[in-house]
Design goal:
Layout: E1 2-6, H1 17-31, E2 36-42, E3 55-60, H2 69-77, E4 82-87, E5 97-104, H3 108-111, H4 118-125, H5 128-134, E6 137-140, H6 143-153, E7 160-162, H7 176-186, E8 192-196, H8 205-218, E9 225-229, H9 237-244, E10 251-255, H10 262-267, E11 269-274, H11 283-290, E12 295-298, H12 303-307, E13 311-314, H13 319-331, H14 333-347, H15 352-367
Parallel strand pairs: 1-2, 1-4, 2-3, 4-5, 5-6, 6-7, 8-9, 8-11, 9-10, 11-12, 12-13
Length: 368
């Protein structure tokens, strides 16, 4: 069997779907010596993701999310004679393989189309029905996404396999000296409240800022709130919101933190808060748990699946609920210790090798 995996996005991005593609390919390289794999790269990319004897690289001209991608990519793939093509970024080309496997990480764009750019709406909303109809099998990051596929797109659950994502081994508890050094490099105090993610509407940062204002009113000595990530769609108003709430000296922005510094960023925090309206998986919550950091997350979509009993759930529509969750962890050392221990134990069950084994079964099932 000849399997193609579309890894072109890894040239343009580091996190999110690009990280998923990268980790799955690396895990398959460790686990599988049977099928022949063709890893599809952007022609501009000089990085090779897999080095096993059954892996080869193909450099393609078609850029990600191009308006003619569905036709141009398929045409480029025809000479490769693929039995199965895996599209980790939802949308497969119209042809180019005998069978198609796609990964749908979330359906945020159907739930909240107002939170997307016009370009993203065109790419995802205009093509998702064709994508799920064409796919021979669908991988989803959570049971919540599988339920969304049935409710929003009438996809039978038998066509969808859930594969929870893994956590990189770099995410682990660090000693005090490593945490102190990282805090000095990032110019941060120890024990801050932490948000990690793209600064975009579905992440509910305005609601978090209002909750933090309520927390400060109740607990004036509350540590600063660190917003770590990168600016996304409609992020311009956040700085103004911080000033309006009188939090300019208590909200610390850290954009584009190096990946190598992320375990320490989590480890030096008093807690991680993820108040998103919607998450297909919520990898920062898993990474925080693996680092021994308590988590406070929204009671929405996949987040309760990820944290289980190891996280505190809040209502993202209610800033008071978010503030109460933050206060409970800050005010109750026993609760914080329990969440920390439970999170470490739970995170150990999430590995990329487990994810890749499920992916491999989907390839085999689609290729029959």
């Amino acid at each position: 069997m000849r399997i193609g995996i579309d890894a072109r996005l890894t040239y343009y991005r580091q996190g999110g779907i690009a990280a998923y593609a990268r980790r799955v390919i690396e895990a398959l390289d460790r686990l599988d010596r049977d099928p022949a794999y063709v890893i599809l790269h952007s022609r501009k990319d000089r990085l090779t993701l897999a080095h096993g004897e059954n892996f080869r690289r193909a450099s393609l001209w078609t850029p990600c999310h191009h308006r003619l991608e569905a036709w141009a990519l398929g045409t480029e793939l025809l000479p490769l004679r693929l039995d199965v093509l895996h599209s980790p970024d939802f949308i497969p080309p119209r042809w180019g393989a005998r069978r198609f496997v796609i990964t749908i990480h979330d359906l945020n764009f159907l739930h909240y189309p107002q939170f997307l750019t016009a370009e993203s709406r065109r790419y995802y909303n205009d093509q998702i029905r064709r994508a799920v109809a064409q796919a021979d099998h669908i991988l989803a990051d959570s049971e919540a996404t599988r339920a969304d596929l049935a409710a929003l797109l009438d996809v039978p659950q038998s066509r969808v396999t859930v594969h929870m994502l893994g956590v990189d081994e770099a995410f682990r508890p660090l000693d005090d000296s490593a945490l102190e050094q990282a805090c000095q490099q990032l110019d941060l105090p120890r024990g801050y409240l932490l948000f990690v993610g793209t600064f975009e509407p579905r992440k509910n940062i305005p609601g978090l800022l209002e909750a933090y204002r309520l927390l400060r009113d109740r607990l004036p000595e509350a540590p600063p709130l660190v917003l770590a990530g990168r600016r996304g769609w409609l992020a311009e108003d956040l700085t103004r919101r911080v000033e309006t709430l009188g939090l300019a000296d208590r909200v610390l922005w850290r954009e584009e933190v190096p990946q190598a510094a992320m375990p320490a960023l989590y480890g030096a925090a008093a807690l991680l808060v993820t108040p998103s309206f919607y998450e297909g998986f919520g990898l920062p919550a898993l990474e925080a748990m693996a680092c021994g950091t308590p988590t406070v997350v929204a009671n929405r979509s996949s987040l309760p699946e990820v944290v289980g009993e190891a996280g505190l759930l809040i209502d993202p529509d209610d800033p008071q609920s978010i503030a109460d969750g933050l206060y409970r962890v800050m005010d109750d050392p026993a609760l914080a210790a329990r969440l920390r221990a439970a999170g470490l134990a739970r995170a150990r069950s999430f590995t990329w090798d487990n994810t890749a084994r499920i992916v491999l079964e989907a390839y085999r099932a689609a290729g029959r």
